[in-house]
């Protein structure tokens, strides 16, 4: 009985030790685990121009248009606190549209415009049939999906979350 | 629990339960596939592509669940020295690895049209890939020893250490920003998924669960039988060896007779 308890304690200690070590490692490398920077992150961290980063956020409403060069697309990525203009020449994923989450990989130019060479669409956790989505239309908040889903589920709408 | 730790009783139970669970898995898969492919609406944004979810998400749940079962079995094996638990852990590993592979492959197929990429190194995808390697590493380790008991013990420790990966996978989408979207079903409050799409998802999850239970019981039973067969062979060999060594003994000695018969 005593040996069993000893072994059980040992197993518990192994779990605790490995857990603590992992937690410390993950905290130390937190910046590297982040998949993208939001526009506010770019601001706060002072990302220097020329460094390759991924910029993530939501494509601002009425911001998608043609760039001056006539080939590239330009749009604004926002996190509802700060915005960054993005220029991208290439194919956009199916889900790319205004008010949709995107992750753009590229470099921030000296002029503050982000030049992307890859744009990925990030979809949210809400799934619903088109009819249900239609009944939620006319949303003044650019169809912030979180709010839409909350209303869909019959809950009070919260303030927009980035 | 203690009654189940008896291999003989477990074998009988497994033989009775496995076919029923297998049948249940087939029926549920039939219903689930019908609901998933025909009986549910397309998504308002992803269209028909959303149907990959009905395989991808249950496979991901099972990948985590099977590993949790293996971890529980490892604790039982390491602490209470239950051979049955160690064998169960070994028997479940390939099933978990297969679910993880299905999850990774279907996720990749889903990501290509929706995200615009097959693979990214974000926290969720990377931690699931690590889970897949843990499964493979466990299988390699368990089979790397001449003495099966030592392999099972070493593998059990590996499973135990790897268990920290489970909360990382689950909460990766909340702790860090990832390309992968956060949880839809298990989030606090109401699921962010329409009931018409939640139903096929849950039926498919039940089907996967029944399939796992059925195959796991069969595999654990096979491991027990294999162990018993090994023990019999050892006993036979042990009986034969001294007989061969005693060539000078007169014919008709009990050891020699057993040796010839083997």
Question: What does this 3D model show about the protein?
Answer:
The complex is a heterodimer of chains A (162) and B (262). Chain A has 162 residues and is an alpha+beta fold. Chain A is 32% helix and 24% strand. Chain A has helices at residues 2-28, 30-33, 39-45, 130-135, 145-152, and strands at 52-59, 65-66, 73-78, 83-88, 101-108, 114-122. In chain A, strand 5 and strand 6 form a beta hairpin. Chain A is elongated and about 75 Å long. Chain B is an all-alpha fold and 262 residues long. Chain B has one domain. In chain B, 75% of the residues lie in helices and 0% in strands. Chain B contains 8 helices and no strands. The longest helix of chain B has 51 residues, at 195-245.
Q: What features would you highlight for this structure?
A:
A: 162 residues; alpha+beta; OB fold (Dihydrolipoamide Acetyltransferase, E2P); disordered C terminus; B: 262 residues; mainly alpha; 8 helices
SSE topology sketch:
The complex is a heterodimer of chains A (162) and B (262).
Chain A: H1 2-28, H2 30-33, H3 39-45, E1 52-59, E2 65-66, E3 73-78, E4 83-88, E5 101-108, E6 114-122, H4 130-135, H5 145-152
Parallel strand pairs in A: 4-6
Antiparallel strand pairs in A: 1-3, 1-5, 2-3, 3-4, 5-6
Chain B: H1 7-37, H2 53-80, H3 83-114, H4 123-142, H5 148-162, H6 165-175, H7 195-245, H8 254-261
- Counting helices, strands and paired strands, the structural category of chain A is alpha+beta
Which percent range describes the beta-strand content of chain A? 15-25%
By DSSP (H or I, 4+ residues per run), the number of helices of chain A equals: 5
Low-confidence stretches of chain A: 148-162
- Please state how the strands of the largest beta sheet of chain A are arranged side by side: 1-3-4-6-5
Quaternary arrangement of the chains shown?
heterodimer
CATH homology superfamily of the largest domain in chain A: Nucleic acid-binding proteins
Give the strand tally of chain A.
6
How many separate structural domains of chain B?
1
Residues in helix, % of chain B: over 70%
The residue-averaged pLDDT of chain A reads: 80
The H-and-E topology of chain A, N to C, reads as HHHEEEEEEHH
Beta content of chain B: under 5%
- Helical stretch tally of chain B: 8
Poorly predicted segments of chain B? 248-262
Q: Mind describing the biggest β-sheet of chain B?
A: none
> What is the helix fraction of residues of chain A, given as a range?
25-40%
Q: What global shape of chain B is seen?
A: globular
Number of strands of chain B: 0
- The computed structural class of chain B is mainly alpha
* Cα end-to-end separation of chain B: 39 Å
């Amino acid at each position: 009985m005593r040996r069993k308890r000893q072994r059980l304690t040992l197993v518990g200690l192994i779990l605790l030790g490995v857990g603590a070590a992992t937690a410390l490692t993950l905290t130390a490398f937190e910046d590297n685990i982040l998949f993208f920077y939001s526009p506010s992150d770019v601001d706060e961290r002072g990302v220097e121009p020329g460094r390759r980063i991924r910029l993530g956020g939501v494509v601002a409403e009425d911001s998608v248009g043609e760039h001056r060069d006539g080939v590239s697309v330009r749009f604004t990525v926002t996190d509802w606190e700060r915005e960054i203009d993005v220029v991208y020449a290439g194919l956009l994923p199916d889900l790319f549209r205004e008010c949709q989450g995107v992750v753009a990989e590229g470099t921030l130019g000296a002029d503050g415009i982000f030049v992307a060479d890859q744009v990925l669409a990030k979809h949210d956790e809400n799934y619903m049939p088109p009819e249900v989505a239609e009944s939620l239309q006319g949303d003044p908040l650019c169809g912030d999906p979180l709010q839409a889903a909350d209303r869909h589920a019959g809950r009070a709408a919260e303030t927009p979350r980035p | 629990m203690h009654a189940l730790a008896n291999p003989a009783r477990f074998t009988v139970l497994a033989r009775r339960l496995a076919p029923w669970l297998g049948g249940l898995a087939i029926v549920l898969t039939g219903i689930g596939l019908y609901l998933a492919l025909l009986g549910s609406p397309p998504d308002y944004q992803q269209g028909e592509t959303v149907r990959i979810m009905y395989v991808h998400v249950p496979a991901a749940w099972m990948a985590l669940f099977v590993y949790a079962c293996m971890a529980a079995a490892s604790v039982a094996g390491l602490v209470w020295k239950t051979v049955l638990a160690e064998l169960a852990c070994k028997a479940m590993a390939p099933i978990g690895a297969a679910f993880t592979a299905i999850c990774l492959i279907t996720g990749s197929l889903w990501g290509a049209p929706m995200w615009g990429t097959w693979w990214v190194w974000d926290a969720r995808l990377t931690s699931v890939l690590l889970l897949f390697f843990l499964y493979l590493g466990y299988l390699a380790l368990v089979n790397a020893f001449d003495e099966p008991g030592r392999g099972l013990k070493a593998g059990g420790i590996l499973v135990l250490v790897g268990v920290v990966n489970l909360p990382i996978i689950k909460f990766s989408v909340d702790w860090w920003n990832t390309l992968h979207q956060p949880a839809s079903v298990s989030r606090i409050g109401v699921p962010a998924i329409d009931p018409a799409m939640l139903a096929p998802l849950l039926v498919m999850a039940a089907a996967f669960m029944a399939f796992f239970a059925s195959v796991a019981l069969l595999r654990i039973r096979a491991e027990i039988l294999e162990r018993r067969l090994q023990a019999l062979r050892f006993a036979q060999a042990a009986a034969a060896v001294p007989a061969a060594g005693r060539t000078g003994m007169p014919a008709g000695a009990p050891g020699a007779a057993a040796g010839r018969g083997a």
